[in-house]
Records
---
Amino acid sequence: MPKDPESLSTLKSRAFDLRIDNLTAITAAASGHPGGTLSAMDIMQALFFGEMRHRPTEPHWAERDRFVLSKGHAVPALYTVLAHAGYFSRDLLPTLRRLGSPLQGHPANFLLPGIEASTGSLGQGFSMAIGMALASKLDGDKFRVYSMIGDGESQEGQIWEAAMAAPKYKLDNLCVILDHNKGQIDGFVDEVMSLNPIADKWRAFNWHVVTCDGHDYTSIQSAFAAARATKGKPTFILAETTKGKGVSFMEGKVGWHGVAPTQAQLEDAVKELRAAKAALEGGN
Amino acid sequence: MGAPVKNEPGSTSVASRDSFGDAIARLGETHPELVVLEADLSESTRSKKFAKKYPDRFFQMGIAEANMLGVAAGLSLAGKVPFCCSFAAFVAARFDQVRMSVCYSSTNVRIVGSHAGVGIGEDGYSQMGLEDIAAMRSLPTMTVIQPADDLETAGAVEALLTHKGPAFLRTTRQKLPRVNKEGYKFELGKGVTLVDGKDLTIVATGGTVAGAVQAAALLAKDGVSARVINIHTIKPLDVPLLVKAARETKRILTVEDHQITGGLGGAVCEALAEVEPVRIHRHGILDVFGESGTPEGLYKHFKLDADGIAAVARDFLK
């Protein structure tokens, strides 16, 4: 845990700014994945503003905790969180997906500090996170590793190869978070290829399984605390989330998986997020 | 020829998978960063030797090669130098993981693909790495190495401990007669001229190099002076050495236990076509599947033994 944990109200307030910056970048790029970035945003903020030990101005610090975004298409959310955490300037965010920008459409670890692995072909980041966790164990367990996977991604066979492997090596320094937003590009997960019963599957693979509300900071922090307290096995956090969270016309709509908002839609979204932020702060 | 002289070419014959196993078991002692991953083939790839000596740095990942490659990438990103072992055929089959996790994630993973080519024999096509070089060398940043004997394999493994970037090391099941001299120094990216000649250059790699050297001796009896170049590093290719050979001998015959499409032959054609276009004949597996048989029988069948290579060379020179 960081020496100076942020207050809940700061996290909640920043969550609106993060969503605005994220959608602004995706709109500027005119392509990207609003739904899955908004569902993942709160978990990512909780990781980089509280849970993880890391140094934004020393991104290659050997003992940093690692975050591997296995569902690589949600990377605009990660870029936004990294910028707010101080890894690079927020001015870079609107260069998302532009020629020459280090903010590639999917993560490229050799182009940008804070990106631990290049992902985007689903199923692979999780395995890389296991490798990092193994290395940590070899070197005296100096850092923890977090990886976020997606619902649709869980249909990849490699996810289950990896799910078999981590408990074998008793990787209690590894925490996998499922951004369970129930949608994928071709429709609802239950229609495309159901994952149910998800928690039972991970329990059967010998994981410590925790459920949380992926948009409630107290709930997310409790899940991370439970993961840290568990010894001898890796933790799987089933984070219940909403695709498009925070923007009413996007929430729960799979159509917003991989389509950028128009400028007008962005303005509506920003208006709504600003109003919600003002209401929150006014209520404090 | 009289009795073989110790430590001279032809004096010893070791499968490169064994030379690899010996090398990692030896180098593990002084290189704590060296880790090894395996997918249930440790007996076949010879990673078992390392596993016995350094159980804490050996990761048995089961028959799950995709995950193994990703885990290897993660270990590398956290500072380790992972040697990730399987059959060449099975590694090439996980091209996406090699492409994304190993290469695009900028790692130092060393993929060791054993059971190269028809030289494995009886198990047949499904277990033969025959398209792996083509796949691996298409990837940006990837280095592709196929040693021709025990000395070269040991040198390659040692070089890969400090080399930056991903690499593919292709090893054989069958024994390889030594083609280099004791004291041989492996230089990544440098071809090795084993026999000098002026009428033709035979460019060979891995399991076909010893046969190419013997073929040059057979051709010499016909009055043909064949140069033999051993290309252990297929990527990056030693283009200057090949250009020189093309200029001086005018004809190039490539020989490999791999498909002629995209392998050493493909690489040599691509390089020379742009710089020094000469007549090139690609010899190897001629766009067909491999099959079961004895290793020797298959090398004869596919004309990869000395007699076969010499016959192909004679046809080419007609």
Note: The domain at 8-51+61-282 of chain A is CATH 3.40.50.970 (Rossmann fold).
---
Amino acid sequence: MIWQIDIMILTLIVICGLFAISVKDLLGAAVVFGAYSFLMCLLWTEMGAVDVAFTEAAVGAGVSTVLFFAAVHRSSRQVKARVSGAMLYKGLGLLASGLMGGVLFYASTDFPDWADPASPASSHLSPHFITQTIAETSVPNIVTSVLADYRGFDTMFETAVVLTAGLAVLIILRLGGCRTAGPIREKNAAIQAAYKDSIIRFVTRMVVPFMQLFALYVVAHGHHSPGGGFQGGVILGASFILLAISYDLKMALNRINEKAALLLANTGVLIYGGIGFLCLLLGANFLDYSILHRILPATDEIAARSHAMLGVEIGVALTVMVIVMIIYNNIVSNGSYEKGL
Amino acid sequence: MELLLAKYNYWIYALIMMIGLYGMLAKNNLIKKIIGMGIFQTGIIVFYVSTGAKRGGTIPIIEHGHGEEVHEVIKALDYVNPLPHVLMLTAIVVSVGTLGVALAIALRIYTEYNTLHEDEILERVND
Amino acid sequence: MINTLTIALMIAGLFFFLATTVGVLRFPDFYTRMHAAGKGDTLSSLLILVGLALYNLHLLSAGNILVTIKILFILMFIFLASPTATHAIIDAGYESGIKPWANENNREGQDDLAD
């Protein structure tokens, strides 16, 4: 927490945000938004939120940018100003954001000082998490233990939200059966040709296995280092997206087709809910993992919580991986699965 | 100076949210609006993570937690508050879901009306 | 000894980063700018990462050696991925019809080419 670096990064973030809003080319705006996400990632590392930074690097800077590219590729990249009433909209927008900003600035006088150790947010519940995580769950990474154990109920439904988002994308783009892919503009078609390149394919073939191995490491080692189900799942999904970009969509779909993908996505949520339900069957509360020591061999109550967290993380990783793939595949081909980026 | 150091994170998050809200309201292009939404979301995340920061705190992973017994007593003041991190971690992952849905809706609109611009869409809806 | 080496490597890395930035800003067209970005970026990140890996060895222990090995892995992947990404971008630019910079007397409109 060095405030000089903090101010520097925050200034760059504001500049990048302004540019992402005002650039006249959608592809350029997507690139600037990617840079914005990387700066966010730096800011969070600097504030000590390493898990959030890891997630932002994988999700915000990686997958979001690719999704923007896919959508721009499928539609058009030009930005036109309003024909009439542009000033009215600008004025109204400035007025509304100015009002909101004024209220927020006014409210900021009531907030506790930044990085105050005695602030209300840090003084009620979190000391318990910090001091008891080793004794109660034997997991050194507090974020993982809070995510998968203390607030496991919350995380379960976050996973369900991710699943729902994937299904919603499927419904929106596929309603009324498969359609043919829309016409691609000349310029975009030329960009597409560039990816039939042997150097890129060779490097992709070399890197993808390591990416997937690293993703599994992130999932399994989330107890001791930054990482966990969400990050590992996104990296796994990104490895398939890399295959789909450097080869074509068919290649990625041959690895995991849509039926298998949907099955895996549901299995992930089912694993999470199933572990919770197992606790219920054994006579404890929903998602109270400590009771699982009765069926897990050679564990006590504390180790059972640690192992159950690993199971839960695997479920999360499955769902997130497959949903990221489904969203990308459908957006890049406009729901037709015909041609990729 | 004292006030600046104590509050600048809150001011910047308000600024980021203002940029995002302006993008969502005033921009004509749907994808620009979605970028505005992303900026608004990160503004909220900056606020949450800022509330979790602690002077003199390190990353929320217990040191020497690998072994069987931990020798020193764990003090809450030594580690930053992990709770906002957990909330925001899931929020970021959900934000990629909402981003996907928003882009899918924008694409669907593009296939129906062949434009991504708000005024042209309204024109073609009214025809 | 390790400290001196680390400082030297880091300063060299920062110097090449500066050179990259100047190159990206000052070079006339898309291809030369990508040339600066691709080469300088890779070399400077490699130098800085080697410096960090060495610095991490000032206290020899199993944990520190593990971290050094991890940094070396990152180094390997940057060495693979960064030139490939530059190649992909330049290829895409060529395919979409950006003309290389030719005439040094005619400096007008060069910014349009780079876009």
Note: The mean pLDDT of chain C is 84.
